[in-house]
Design a protein that fits this description.
Helix 3 runs parallel beside helix 9. The chain is about 75% helix and about 0% strand. The chain has one domain.
């Protein structure tokens, strides 16, 4: 009897709550569900991001040891290092930028989930093409890059297209901002085509530097503070 009376008091107190408090509680419950969905969906994708970072860092660690004389000699070229910087920054900023999905009414479907998996697979493949596992059988990173540049820029173009659709998932207004649509998506399409066609070293180092610089500027201007975009 005592428990029933207590429950009735609690229900009565809840019913007497002001409407704004009830709405706030309802929004809090929805937010908790959204966070749980986000964490569930991106659990696998976080593993893929971790694999990409591990691949790059392991290769760079091996290169440092070889530069110290522990292992076969290796030449690290500026073009190769610039593109490593681009892909490292891209992978990290892509994951960081997905937080925007928390701020919009995004409906998770299995198709959307498969798309995000495909997008992060494309980034991982670009990294693997650029940086062989632990830089095995690579003595000169410039020659390695130039010999495989068609594969690299082809994969980069595919990743750029998927990145645009990834951004579209967050809203057309977000995807068609000039600082992204022109300075990021458009620039990387041009860079991929130019890098694929033109072989001169000055062209290659120019587009690599432009890609990294534009990426850093975009991150600073658009993604700097979590939750502000």
């Amino acid at each position: 009897m005592g428990a029933g009376v207590e429950s009735a008091k609690i229900r009565g107190a809840q019913e007497r709550q002001p409407k704004f408090q009830k709405n706030r509680l309802r929004r809090a419950n929805v937010w908790e569900v959204d966070v749980e969905q986000f964490e569930f969906v991106f659990a696998l994708l976080s593993v893929m991001v971790g694999l990409g970072l591990t691949h790059i860092l392991s290769a760079m660690g091996t290169a440092i040891h070889r530069l110290r004389g522990r292992g076969a000699p290796i030449k690290l070229d500026a073009i190769f290092l610039l593109w490593v910087g681009v892909m490292l920054t891209w992978l990290i900023s892509a994951w960081w930028g997905e937080y925007k999905l928390q701020t919009i009414d995004f409906v998770w479907t299995f198709g959307a989930y498969l798309f995000f998996i495909l997008y992060y697979i494309s980034l991982f493949l670009v990294i693997v093409i650029l940086v062989p596992s632990r830089l095995e059988n690579v003595a000169d990173t410039y020659l390695h890059f130039m010999n495989g540049r068609a594969w690299f820029f082809g994969a980069l173009l595919v990743a750029t297209i998927l990145d645009f659709f990834d951004t579209m998932m967050k809203g057309a207004d977000w995807a068609f901002r000039p600082e992204y649509f022109i300075s990021q998506s458009g620039l990387f399409v041009v860079v991929s085509i130019v890098g694929w066609i033109f072989k001169p070293r000055w062209v290659q180092i120019t587009i690599a530097a432009a890609a990294l610089l534009s990426q850093l500027i975009y991150i600073w201007r658009s993604l700097n503070v979590l939750g502000s975009f």
